[in-house]
Amino acid sequence: MPETSTLSDDFVRELINVGEVDILVGVPTYNDARTVGQVVQAVRAGLLQYFPRERAVIINADGGSRDGTQDLVRAASISDLSVTPDIHALRTLHSISTHYEGGPASGLALRSILAAADLLQAKACAIVAPDSTTVEPIWIDRLLRPLLRDSRDLVLPVYRRHKFEGLLIRNLVYPMTRAIFKCSAHEPYPTDFAFSGPLGSRFLGQDIWTQDQGLHGTELWIVLSALVERCKITQSFLGVKTRSESAPADLVKAMRESAGVLFASLETNFLAWSDSRDALEAPCTGCETTVSLEHSRLNRKRLHQMFAFGVSELEPVFLSILTPPTHDELKRLARLPEEKFLYPEELWVRTVYEFAAAYHKAVIGRDHIVQALVPLFRGRAFTFLTENRDASAEEVETNIESLCQAFERQRPYLLEAWDGRK
Amino acid sequence: MAAQDGLWYKDAIIYQVHVRAFYDSSGDGNGDFRGLAQKLDYLQELGVNAIWLMPFFPSPLRDDGYDISDYRSVNPTYGSLDDFKAFLNAAHQRGIRVVIEMVLNHTSDQHPWFQESRSSRDNPRRNWYVWSDTDTKYKGTRIIFLDTELSNWAWDPVSKQYYWHRFFSHQPDLNYDDPKVLEEMWDVMRFWLNWGVDGFRLDAVPYLVEREGTNCENLPETHGVIKDLRKRLDKEFPGRMLLAEANQWPSDLLSYFGKGDEFHMAFHFPLMPRMFMGLKLEDRKPITEIMKQTPTIPDICQWCLFLRNHDELTLEMVTDMERDYMYDEYAKEKAYRLNLGIRRRLAPLLDNDRRKIELMNGMLMSLPGTPIIYYGDEIGMGDNVNLGDRNGVRTPMQWNGSWNGGFSDADPEMLYSPLMLNPVYGYQAINVYSQKRFDHSLLSWMKQLIRVRKASSVLSRGSIQFLYPANHRVLAYLRKFGNETVLVVNNLSSKAQAVELDLKDYRGNILTEMFGRNIFPRIGELPYLLTLGPYQFYWFRLRRI
Lengths: 422, 545
Known about the structure:
- The complex is a heterodimer.
- Chain A is of the alpha/beta class.
- Chain A is 51% helix and 12% strand.
- Chain A contains 17 helices and 9 strands.
- Chain A is globular and about 70 Å long.
- Chain B is an alpha/beta fold.
- Among the domains of chain B are: 112-164, Oligo-1,6-glucosidase, domain 2 (Alpha-Beta Complex), CATH 3.90.400; 462-543, Immunoglobulin-like (Sandwich), CATH 2.60.40.1180.
- Chain B has helices at 19-22, 33-38, 40-46, 81-93, 112-119, 179-195, 220-236, 250-257, 271-281, 285-292, 320-330, 346-349, 354-366, 432-436, 442-454, 458-461; strands at residues 14-17, 50-53, 97-103, 131-132, 153-156, 161-164, 199-203, 241-244, 265-267, 302-306, 313-314, 337-338, 341-342, 370-374, 463-467, 474-481, 484-491, 497-501, 510-513, 519-520, 528-532, 537-543.
- In chain B, helix 9 runs antiparallel to helix 10 (285-292).
- The longest helix of chain B has 17 residues, at 179-195.
- Chain B is globular and about 80 Å long.
- The interface between A and B is medium-sized, with 19 and 26 residues.
């Protein structure tokens, strides 16, 4: 394989056989055999039902699965070689798989898919997570239609999630993105989303692929890039999002991929977000309530303990990152018993903004800064769970909205901290 | 010449022509047999070796001659029986066979047989047609001309009964349950066979017999009629040919070949729209799928392939989804839609794109079957949808850029149909004379295509083996006959394509491109890599030298 290419010769040969397409659906995988079959079948059904005339391809970028994931994706092909009597398709549908080097990493997978989309001149490109057990054929329509019909640049999903799912998104990534970039995108770090061919080519051309954000959290990075570019964005309601049960979430990793990428984007795009530009519209098609209320059990006690432990253990680090008033307030909170513990939204916003400023100033190693936010987030998560334990869906949405407004109110605080005035 | 080679129809290249539309020798505004005879040199030069004449019998012409009022004569507008004979002899002298139309299923309501039949319920010919007191019989039968007919029954005010008609109400169906009808129709066929015609294109054959509780198509009794006619033909006129017009799915078509004892040839109706579909989709899937469904036919039989004809591009043998697609892609304007089809000629259907026209003709000539060229398509004539029904694809042949396009000396107002006049397809832009002057005209190219096709029997008689390269925009197949093998590679795409072909069974063979006769690299161990320009196709002869 040529050193300069990220694509294997076999993959390029397969792309030649696919030729120019209208639609490309990318499925990044790594050992997803348990769910990916269902996902690609839904993708295929969506393409046949909603885009029967468009030239389409399913591209799987795999990080080295050993469980047969790639075979399951390839099986979704429709061709004249293997006629499936119950499938009525006007045209051939290629479903091809490539193993990218250096993985598994979602950014590397995304890069392979973007490269394929660019080579195939795809007009619209959707990414679908391999572990979305609730994926329906209509997702394909809702993700791609706004690109093809309305000439939108980027389509982001809106899901109905359990009120205690996506705590990091709801308490940090969504409200901060909304406040800083002035765009109310509910899922700025999506696993199912779509973008136009030209926007995909611009993503591919970014100089990020050897950096952290080119490996992990890349989806968030490119969404933030689209916000900076003032792209035409639409949100599509997809319904319930449930992912297959996998290993317990690694919160440090999640923090790096979300807050770390968000902070890095602030650093790169300071001029774009710091001016007083107008809000960027992101209308939502078919949006319904985003919160569901099924029974869920979370260990709040442990969150509280780890917050207190972190505040104590990382005091030297926090001295570098936080202003004394904020630090003092956190120390006070850490001493509170569980039943009296409350991490107020204004304090949480101030904390996050001080972390972002510290990241900008690189007061210590940036990765250490991001990691240090983890125990504090646990404290905020404890409060979110407590506040919303008995809340209705509407009340949860009201509380999230309140937090967003707090992030927006304190935006000037971030700018001051950024300039070193705090 | 009929008895020289019993399988002549397999090697035929048929030119479909309407006498009325080809050349007017008398100056009355209608083409005629003398005119057609004068243009035989043109057809010989083109390279065709068979002519299929559309109905030329006396007729009220309410369905362009498919409503026959006398089966044993020539419509006086087109000449006399002697004129026909002179034309036939002249064609045979040039090695061109003549296939004529035979409408077995129905007559005109002006035919004396029907006039007698309707005259009273006691008339000896009463039973030659299908009569009923009610219009509720054979309810399971579809209506073919959906745009004009509401029922397959029509009320006859004279004899006060309903009569059965599968097509227009002025075309009553003959009743083959009366043995005298079969005897009479065979006598008609024998009449023309004695004159020397080489075969018949039998119109609307699936509908000959009606039975309650069926869809009145493809019935065993209908096959019985065909078998009977074929037996008589083989006995009295060996070497003559029967061609079936049966717009049916391949599996239903198979029965029309019987065990080689019904039709010699049948049109492959389902393939034609799928060639257009494959081209528009830039995907071989519709073509290979229908070919997979195409059954093996008896050795002495042959498919008849066509791109366009005198009717609409029929979409009966496609799925609803495919029909919608075809309408949207090839007939966006509703005016182009007729019944379940599209009333357009080849060139306008293909956006007048020379590359597409060449590719489609290339496939026509290389897929297994006997190709039919519809008159005027060899020069890329256009159509006129404003002429109603299917008359827009039946305008006068365009011979040159002068008076009436060289078709007739009559005043233009006297022509049976207006000429094409628009700047793109009009006779001043598209005509035989101007295209004969240039080696790279469509006409010259068609001559070359036919010449190469005729140079060997492999494309007319050979077997087919589809290759399935991973590039679905490329349709590739091998044709084999005896020791000869030809590789055909078609790029259905508007963009250049690379394709790798699995030819390992032919390792060591050298490819010779059949048009330019240049050699291409020898086939080795690796997949054979070819690149093709937009809509390009190759025919290669494979030889181990």
